Amino acid sequence: CTFLALGTHFGKVFLLDVQGNVTQKFEISSVKINQISLDESGEHVGICSEDGKVQVFGLYTREGFHENFDCPIKVVALHPQFTRSNYKQFVTGGTKLLLYERNWLNRWKTSVLHEGEGVITNIHWRANLIAWANNVGVKIYDISTKQRITNVLRDNVSLRPDMYPCSLCWKDNTTLIVGWGTSIKICAVKERNPTEMRDLPSRYVEIVSAFETEFFISGLAPLNSDQMVMMLVCIYIEGPTTEEEFRARPRLDIIQPLPESCEEISSDALTVRNFQDNECRDYRLEHSEGESLFYIISPKDIVVAKERDQDDHIDWLLEKKKYEEALMAAEISFKNIKRHEVQKIGMAYINHLVEKGDYDSAARKCQKVLGKNMDLWENEVYRFKTIGQLKAISQYLPRGDLRLRPAIYEMILHEFLKTDYEGFATLIREWPGELYNNMAIVQAVIDHLKKDPTNRTLLTTLAELYTYDQRYDRALEIYLRLRHKDVYQLIHKHNLFSSIEDKIVLLMDFDKEKAVDMLLDNEDKISTDRVVEELGDRPELLHVYLHKLFKRDHHKGQKYHERQIGLYAEYDRPNLLPFLRDSTHCPLEKALEICQQRNFVEETVFLLSRMGNCRRALQMIMEELGDVDKAIEFAKEQDDAELWEDLISYSIDKPPFITGLLNNIGTHVDPILLIHRIKEGMEIPNLRDSLVKILQDYNLQILLREGCKKILVADSLSLLQKMHRTQMRGVRVDEENICESCHATILPSDMAKPFSVVVFHCRHMFHKECLPSPGTIHGVQFCNICSAKRRGPGSGILEMKK
């Protein structure tokens, strides 16, 4: 909601609604309130008073900053986004400009931004920029870069700054308006070119307008306007005693700044109580961001000003011949204005533009003004034809559900075809074909091509006309002749694959990537064999096609994999090794032959290892590549003791290789074997570090073994306990179970008689008398059936006979 915060000379702050009713009251001090600042949300307020009190608090929480200073604090300004937790900042002005910031510990930190130039009388904060005024001039501080970026000096130093205070207001985030005495300056904050920075701030201020007025300025505020920079100025004029009553009344003026002067737009004299006794410093002008409300504050009255209503505005715009703005305003207020009145304003505007010779603007306004009135549209078209400006109105003609007669569109197309081929082509692309007689336009284009048969624009346009007329074969012929980018779209859209089987090379010469993607996406229409046959004489194109085919599916073109080896070797070696790795249909002997002929070491190493000749592969790595890390990695992958022996033997007289081995083989080969074979006196780089790493690796292995042992013991104990609990459970025995020895029912028919049954954990059951003797371990009985299975065939029978 909108409210006013009003401070008094008696230290009280009142919150008023827009009707002037008091909604809240705060007792801040016993002396004059100097300044009140609200953040953009209206949830937090900053207040300072003549006795040095500064309070910043939430209107709904009262939590915040409360401090007493030993000097009067004249001004306070909150960060515009103060309500957000990341922007808890405000500044105060007395003899110093102080910045307060709340840190993450919820404590307030104070920084001095400026001092030593007298009392600070005004502060305005917008986005990251703080502007303040003192007796010397106006400064701007960039809070994001922590730099002061300007100093705008006071012009008329003869005026007392306490009697004629400085007025500041931000028009936007980078435009500051300064009013002081009788002068006004508009300052634009701009980014400095990085090449010019050196020790200078990253921004600078340019005075875009500066002028003197005939009155003293009491306040400034920006007026919402998109067309011109305007300001609302509250003034106080000192005049002769004979006219003091009139001259002393403050005025509310709207002015338009010019580079070195200003133009008065309107002026209204204000009547406030005791205005005869008021001075320039007794008036203030405040405005509400986002609303066209302005508040003129005097010691006894508050005057609320707002812009005139829309009807008054439209009348004024028409009077000033500002038709564009009048039309826009009328359309916004359409619900209050009849359609024919809007059209009347619009036609007056179109006539005005035609009289001025601004035909393009006049034609553009036809869309908005003429609407669905076909008669008005045709009248305007013939009017533009009469003045020779058919081109101007062509791009604004109706072309949707609302259409003119075909003759109108054909008249304009013929006009373009005579004078502007490019414009004609643009209209053909933009206009739906049903607006005009297509055959008539095709014939007209053919007639012009007889005079200029190689004109690319006309040929392209003719292809588009053929496409609309569904004569796709003729359109395709033209597109291929011109190598036009739309050829692929035409083929896809109208399924013209049968027409391009003998034009594959031509398509790939035009755009390989698009052509290959199209061919692979439509293998059912143009087979791989057909494509390979067509590209047989162009191996570089064939490689592009087969490479993409392989990327999509490693098995589809398997019969061409042998051929691809040579193609990769000739045109695309970086992808040869990935191809060899991924292909399962590539003849390894052929690949090895080609790679050895071309001395492709990495590819040869891979093929040798894949064919099982790992020792030769390792030898090539060591001798031709000289890459110990790669040799070690290869030996690790193969995990072959003979390879490690070969690697050690080759490296034993090469110190860099020995260093690499010491650093990497600790987990695969006992390093002692390598160390014992090093010759006495051989200088090995980084030997100490390598030995330290070996010891560290060994310690790590010991720790891992101990950790694994602890885990194994713990898991074994856990599983043993689980098995014990399982084996302690009871086993259900009923009349369905039988003795595994005599195969009789395990339970007797007469349950009253005593009987003995033995049940093993394997769930085999026996009558006690059917079991053989316990065996070699006294008191331990085993299941005869399970024991027989472990010992082999016939064991169970022997057991039963004992």
UniProtKB/TrEMBL annotation:
Coiled coil: none annotated. Keywords: Autophagy, Cytoplasm, Cytoplasmic vesicle, Endosome, Golgi apparatus, Lysosome, Membrane, Metal-binding, Protein transport, Transport, Zinc, Zinc-finger. It comes from the Eukaryota. It is found in: Cytoplasm, Cytosol; Early endosome membrane; Endosome membrane; Late endosome membrane. Gene3D superfamilies: Tetratricopeptide repeat domain, YVTN repeat-like/Quinoprotein amine dehydrogenase. SMART domains: CLH (SM00299). Its main location: cytoplasm. It is a peripheral membrane protein. One of its GO terms (molecular function) is zinc ion binding. PANTHER family: VACUOLAR PROTEIN SORTING VPS41, VACUOLAR PROTEIN SORTING-ASSOCIATED PROTEIN 41 HOMOLOG. This is Vacuolar protein sorting-associated protein 41 homolog. It comes from Myripristis murdjan (pinecone soldierfish). The gene is VPS41.
